[in-house]
Amino acid sequence: MCFSASASYTASAVLLLSGIIALSKANARQRMLAAIPLLFAIQQFIEGTVWQALYRGTPATINTYAYLVFV
Known about the structure:
- The chain is mostly helical.
- The protein has helices at residues 5-25, 31-34, 36-56, 61-70.
- The two termini are 12 Å apart.
């Protein structure tokens, strides 16, 4: 999102909820596709932790590398 930590956490929550709903409605062949919103939820959550570290002025090395895995 690249706006703020709160925007990233909000997007993460919305994506998590939509991913859970998608997985519950998907049949066995569609499970991998339905899990994609869950991956984006993880990415947005990690982005939020990077934003918080930047606000505090603390190093976010592990969070930054975790975020780069998804980029």
